[in-house]
Design brief:
- By secondary structure, this protein is mainly alpha-helical.
- It is built from four helices and no strands.
- The radius of gyration is 20 Å and the shape is elongated.
- The protein starts with a helix and ends in an 8-residue tail after the last helix.
Amino acid sequence: MRTLCSSTLIGEFFVIGFAGLVAMKDDTLATSTVWWVCGVAMVFSVLLCGMVTRPGGVQLGWALQIGLIASGFFVPVIFFLGAAFAALWWASVHYGRKVDEVKARWAASQAAQGPAEPDAA
């Protein structure tokens, strides 16, 4: 799960950065405010990569998805990109957990078989 979720979060890092560049073109938004908000969100997405498997990590990821979608009020195309990344986040969590379960079952079956016998040469 960690690999899939981290990949999604790193993709969001870039999307947030590019959205900040687009938002800078809006005369109603202060450039410093745009970069503070985008900078905090970008740092949060990177830090979240290491927190995904910890308690509350997935929920914090959902909070980032909601924030990304809500930023569509300032940069309208982010509504679409935020929804796409929320779908990717769901898929990363859902299928990542399934992969982790399969790996755990495989490891348990290998442990139950015991150590491999060396070849008699």
